[in-house]
Amino acid sequence: MLRTAPFSTRALHPRPLHRALPLPAHSRLSFPGRFKPSLAKPYATSAPPPPPAAKLVSRWRTFARYTFYLVGSSIVGVGLLTGVIFLHDAFTYRERHIDGVPVSPRALHPERGGPKNLPVLSRLLSDLEDNETRELVHKPHLVIVGGGWGAVGVIEKLNPGDYHVTIVSPETYTTFTPLLPSAAVGTVSVRSLVEPLRKIAARLKGHLINARAVDLVMSERLLEVETIVPSGKGERMYIPYDKLVIAVGSTSSTHGVPGLEHCFQLKTIGDAQAIRKRIIDNFEAASLPTTTPEERRRLLSFVVCGGGPTGVETAAEIYDLCQEDLINYFPKICRKEVSIHLIQSREHILNTYSEAISRYAEDKFMHDNIDLVTSARVQSVAPDKVVYTRRGPDGKPETHEIPTNFVLWSTGIAMNPFTRRVADLLPNQVHKKAIEVDAHLRVKGAPLGEVYAIGDASTIETSVVPYLLELVDEADKNKDGKIDFEEWEVMVSRIKKRIPMAEEQLQKVRELFDLYDSDSDNTLTLNELAVLLQEIGNKITALPATAQVASQQGKYLGKKLSKVAERRKVLEANGLRPEEADEAVSGPFRYFHLGSLAYIGNAAVFDLGKFSFMGGLAAMYAWRSVYWSEQVSMRTRALLMIDWIIRGVWGRDLSRL
Known about the structure:
- Helices cover 39% and strands 18% of the residues.
- The chain has 23 helices and 27 strands.
- The strands form 9 sheets. Strands 9-8-7-4-3-10-21 form a 7-stranded mixed beta sheet. The chain has a 4-stranded parallel beta sheet with strand order 14-13-12-18.
- Residues 1-14 and 16-40 have low confidence and may be disordered.
């Protein structure tokens, strides 16, 4: 039986061609009847786009996922941080039993000696606490008087184990002085500007004596100090030394003006706190309804004497305080009655900066309605006013008064009492503001290699005449008592080594020689040399009394003292005496000016020598960055950053503390 394949009706009725195969778009064929050509749809290569609702849901899911990641990682981070803090506290807060601490009998019962028969601190209480301190007792005793920029610079560059270090300071901390104007109005906290000296000296296993230096016995190498105790009356004693560094800073110059006891200064943390209290007190009293208009204007009048960086920055900070914070919380009439006066003896403020910077600062202050009184001299200060004189249009001096309840005195520096005492003990110390030192920062007249002075307490000698005979003896090869040009070149090289600050004046060697060779015999006599060296000394500008100079001098001296300690045995083997070690291990001090900067109220100026930079917020943040990087420790950097954030978000603290 034959079997046939299944029969399909499609075989009898095949699919029309026009439906199976699409015609090209350019075809002109037409089909009569109900059959019409239909274009085939192209095959899709991707899924059709989702509806708008699906897109929205997808986006929300992505947002929720990343939000979950962020919140989860934050929770985990906070948890880990909390755990770390917990572990730190668990290991920190534990009982410590200290029994049998060794103490030298001479530390408990100091022997007496010296010209005044005072206790001599040959040993300190912590000298025998551990093996390291026991070894340091036999090292040279380095005593640093002061705790400012210069002293900290020395400590930072000393190598541990080289010296038995003792710091003598009336304060137990070092202060970042450039930001004291900000601390005086509450822009930053005073705690953010200080670092304990004991923490700084801990790296060297050093000691701190909270005392004030009062006298010096160089013949016996004894430093006389007066301790600072809560009862108010300290005890005097001697501290022996092998090397002494004087870094006590300076005080404000009075210029013979009476009534300065009514003025504030701005050199310490205590000064900043006192200024802040007075400003808040004045505003609180001015806001009382019973205060008369005249008294209110006097209370809200702020006078700053001195147009240097400190005076300018303080005036700018007071303006910022009034404009940004006090106006929001005190009656508006108080802000209206505020007047800020800046009295400057020169024609321009910031006169040590470039002329462009001075003009910019003056324009900024005029825009802020800060009264600039230039070319004026303060005659007296009373409890309720400042009296000053200024030349009138006819050239005659005119007397003016400014009623006020706040006066800041910031006009130059004067000798610290201890600095004055040391200068009186030594011959040829005739400088009126500081101790004169040589290019190696050694005090002139003191035993070489024993007493150094840095910072505001010192000034590097600029006179070359005292070395005339010594220079001639070194350079005069034929010993004829005259200096020819070749010998003059030798003398110039010797001068540059002794007084590096004279290098700028000695660049044109041949021109100088010909200029002072009055008889044109191609030689210089002693008289001609004396006149030449005198003129060179008169043209040399002394280094400014700034934190930058003090810091560089401290770091230079710290490095040099470390080199002396490291090479002590080599120097002794070569027959060099201790006083010759300075010149053997290091060249003279050379100051490198990094620039000057000042804050002028939500703006700042930078004087970089040949270049100047000034501006608004960008310059202000650059100013903050520089000072932030110059902090002593990471602790103060963190505190300073927090203070700036708090001021920006919540404003300054207006409490009177």
